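Re: the request from the purification team.
They wanted to know what the chain is likely to look like in 3D before they choose a buffer screen. I agreed to run a prediction and write the result into the notebook, where they can find it.
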Amino acid sequence: MEYDEKILEKCLPKYLEEDLKRLKEGIKNKVSYLDCLINELQGSINSAWVDGAITEEQCDYLYKKYIYGG
């Protein structure tokens, strides 16, 4: 399934945006604690999904791209 990043990474809750930004910066800077950043992001994705703040499509996209590294 093809995802549109421009749409699926918009209108995220602030805490999820921040964790996503920190992970992207961590990847860019090749930090040694990427696993921690991924865990933080995973928790934020789960919270946002349970709270109904993101769609199932956004949840799947974020997991595939950032948690599973696809």
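For the purification team: Residues 36 and 44 are 12 Å apart (CA to CA).
Please add any questions underneath this entry.
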